[in-house]
């Protein structure tokens, strides 16, 4: 895959406000936060999207992500937060190196501040959901 800004941050070629680093992972503050304390957590493996991540790198994510969430809520005082993980241009991904956003939520978040979520729930036929479940299970 091509080099991204996050690979350059990992290599120390571009500065960041680092909050955590180990052999497999790096966490740093988002340069354009959408909420106070907005933090990015990235595996060092340069996979473009989550589905391309190795099992070892995925395990490294799982080991540190909850710990980093605890640190963000303790430092910010936020009681709620979202983990956002975008894959692909249609999913709003801008940097094609896997990353998890930790986005604290505060009382009063709303249009124009913090993370906005549209959740257009639908009611598909039961058979349609069952069919998709079988197809996904078969693809694992
Ligand atoms: P995406 O839309 O790909 O999920 O989000 C990419 C995120 O990376 C954005 O929130 C953006 O502000 C952040 N970002 C892009 N370039 C830089 C950078 O050079 N440094 C830091 N710290 N964050 C960046």
List the main descriptive attributes of the protein structure presented here.
HIT family, subunit A, binds guanosine-5'-monophosphate, globular
Distinct bound molecules: guanosine-5'-monophosphate
What number of domains?
A: 1
Task: Give the mean pLDDT.
Answer: 95
CATH architecture: 2-Layer Sandwich
Low-confidence parts: none
Shape, please? Answer: globular
Q: State the fourth-level CATH superfamily.
A: HIT-like
CATH class: Alpha Beta
Structural class computed from helices and strand pairing: alpha+beta
Topology, number of strands: 5
How does this structure look, described?
The chain has helices spanning 5-10, 55-76, 126-139, and strands at 18-21, 25-29, 39-43, 80-84, 100-105. The model has no long low-confidence stretch (mean pLDDT 95). The protein is globular, with a radius of gyration of 17 Å. The chain has a five-stranded antiparallel sheet, covered by helices on one side. β1 (18-21) and β2 (25-29) form a beta hairpin. The protein is of the alpha+beta class and 140 residues long. The chain has one domain (5-113): HIT family, subunit A, CATH 3.30.428.10. Bound molecules: guanosine-5'-monophosphate. Guanosine-5'-monophosphate (5GP) binds at residues 5, 14, 16, 28-32, 86, 92-95.
Short description:
The protein has helices at 5-10, 55-76, 126-139, and strands at 18-21, 25-29, 39-43, 80-84, 100-105. The chain is α+β, with helices and mostly antiparallel strands. A five-stranded antiparallel beta sheet has the order 1-2-3-5-4, with helices on one face.
């Amino acid at each position: 895959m091509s080099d991204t800004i996050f690979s350059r941050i990992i290599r120390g070629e571009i500065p960041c406000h680092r909050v955590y680093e180990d052999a497999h992972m790096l966490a740093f503050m988002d340069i354009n936060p959408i909420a106070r304390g907005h933090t990015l957590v990235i595996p060092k493996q340069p996979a473009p999207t989550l589905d391309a991540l190795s099992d070892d790198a995925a395990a490294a994510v799982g080991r540190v992500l909850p710990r980093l969430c605890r640190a963000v809520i303790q430092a910010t005082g936020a009681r709620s937060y979202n983990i956002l993980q975008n894959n692909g241009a249609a999913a709003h991904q801008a940097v094609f190196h896997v990353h998890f956003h930790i986005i604290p939520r505060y009382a009063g978040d709303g249009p124009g501040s913090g993370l906005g979520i549209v959740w257009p729930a639908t009611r598909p036929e039961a058979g349609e959901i069952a069919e998709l479940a079988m197809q996904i299970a078969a693809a694992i």
